[in-house]
Specification:
362 residues; single chain; alpha+beta; zinc-finger; 25 strands; Double Stranded RNA Binding Domain; 34% helix; repeat
Amino acid sequence: MPFVMAVTVKDEHGNIDLGAITERAQLEASQPPTSDLQPPKVSGSSDFLLQNVTWKYFVCNTCGKSFTTQSNLKSHHRIHTGEKPFACTVCGHAFRQRQSLQSHMRTHTGERPFECPQCGKRFSKQAQLKTHAVVHTGEKPYGCDVCGRRFNLLQNLHRHAHTHTGKKIYVCSVCGKGFTRAVTLKTHQLIHTGQKPFKCEQCPKTFRHAVNLKNHQRIHSGLRPFSCDLCGKSFRQAVNLKIHRRIHTGERPFSCQECGKTFSQQSSLISHGRTHSTEKPFECSSCDKKFNNANSLKLHLRVHTGEKPYGCDICGKSFSQGSHLRTHKRHVHAGGKQFICDKCGKRYSDQRNLKLHKCSYA
């Protein structure tokens, strides 16, 4: 099969000379291009340097794109055929190129060879480092025409634009659920496959995503890197700190449409919503009693297990619920308000409540 040799001529400034004609010569497949090939004679070619001639020998017969090596053409051709010969031995994900597989394997090994020279943060892909670098420049050249919000990457602007159109162009072939982002669809599809490729080395637990494994590993390490600047309480995840801060700010962004009651957490709103219905999806496996939220079931199970995790630090008596411990302290131990604020003299039965109270002075 013949292939095409393409030549693009550039001027002395490196710009493509639109006036110069790109010549194409049909070469027999049995005679691949060699270093002896000379650039075609172009009118006025004496004005051009040899390095200003770009050679692209191998042209895709499907779309016309040209490449300097046959291997690059072969790799490109898989876009048209759909062939993905390089498969991950851990999760089975397949790729068109070997380097794509090598990059993917870092999600399993945790290797992050690309380091930001500004802050030292490391990444598994060079493209991720390039994206991150914009954080330090603060540059956001891409603006949304609808709301004016600006972005550092064009792809982020495109992704954001879907929030205004409401279009969910990425649809799950299994359940029909739509998404505005391809990566969100890909994440969702793991629910149907049941695939959990990320395994904890310290316990048998597995996860669908690397970030979930990372969060889980903090249980074993005891690491709590996210600290509240008001009361000092620390958390394993940033989202938990965000929710916690609402205790100090009083923010309750989730509102019940039935009665108007507000909540600081969406999960609390969902649980509350069941009080307006007869739905009780959480059933005890020991006595078949049903509850409208998971926390109520968890508390109830202690009736069967005998678990009493809340111990009184004064007399040692233990209780199955924190509210029972607080009641015990109030009625048994001198009114139960032995924790006193050194600024205003207000008394509390619980050291935690005193700590939260002191935050109001911060």
